[in-house]
Amino acid sequence: MLDKFLEYLELEKRYSPHTITSYRKDLEDFYRFYLKTESSEDISKADKKIIRNFIVELSENNIAKRSINRKLSSLRSFYLFLLKIGDIEVSPVENISSLKFYPEKQIPMSEQEMQKLSDQAFTNVQDILEKCIMEVLYQTGMRKAELCGMTFENVNLSAGEIKIIGKGNKQRIIPVSENLAAVLKSYVQIRNPATEFKSYFFVNRKGKKLTEKFVYVVVNKYLSLVTTKEKRSPHILRHSFATHVLDNGAEISKVKKILGHSSLASTQVYTNANIEQLKKVFNQAHPRASKNDEL
Fold first, then answer.
1. Using the 8-state DSSP alphabet, how is residue 120 labeled?
2. Of 143, 232, 244, 256, which residue is the catalytic one?
3. How far apart, in Å, are the Cα atoms of 232 and each of 44, 105, 107, 111, 145?
4. Contacts by 37-46 with C-beta closer than 8 Å and gap 24+?
């Protein structure tokens, strides 16, 4: 039944391989728990009590609330699928609420920190690849999975744009600055993909498609050179991109499109990142503030 559900996600919902892998892991975790506690492999017969017990065990094992909620979301989707094909009549996850939690505040890199990084010397082939990874993530705000999945045919440097296939197989166009285009061109000159990976834009030294783990390691390494902040992940570069372009006057609706957010609420999170910048803009723009400056 699990394989049927994952096939449904791939063929009908057209989810990315990364998303399907996450669903598989979440459901396999529940399957192991069910087998251990119920001595049965038929998770279609699970009830609300078993779902709640699963949540309790995850909590006792110090699994983060965000991760528990993701597993609950995977279970909801799975049992809705079983409802859809008529295997069950009631979902055991129905009316089970996600855990409440307050997300840890993400602190973006400063523009000064990112400039220091840009000033670093990149000379050999590996350096050029890594610089390109850092600049693409920071100058486009794309996700690490999107970077790994970038195809060569979707990078159009003459037009100054990259086509991205994002979450839910949604396509969007990201503009490329002259600065980033120059970085990408320098990488193209040393790019040497193996035959089976030639469709991917980014490849490692062996010519293979980049892994998300590799991208994370690269980002963590370079951000460690310019900051002591604890969070040094690819997502922080996405966060920094959004914060900096909004701070410099970009329209939030346009930033939403570039980031591939489905709702404006997701993008609005970044408008709260730098309240001092917002105060500065207000004081410069408000007529009362202007008159007060003249006194």
1. S
2. 143
3. 40, 13, 10, 15, 16
4. 43/1, 44/1, 44/82, 44/87, 44/88, 46/92
How distant, in Å, are the alpha carbons of 54, 104, 208, 257 from that of 190?
A: 50, 40, 14, 31
Q: What angle do CA 90, 96, 98 make, to 5 degrees?
A: 140
Which among 209, 210, 213 is positioned nearest to 233, based on CA atoms? 213
Phi, psi angle pair for 144, to nearest 5°: -65, -35
Catalytic residue, candidates 191, 209, 238, 244: 238
User: Does the annotation count 235 as an active-site position?
Assistant: yes
Active site residue 270: yes
Closest CA to 200 of 209, 191, 189: 209
Tens-digit pLDDT profile for residues 186-236? 999 999 999 999 999 999 989 999 999 999 999 999 999 888 887 889 999
Whose structure tokens read 């930033």? 255
Question: In a 3-state reduction of DSSP, which class is residue 171?
Answer: strand
Rounded (5°) CA angle 50-61-75: 40
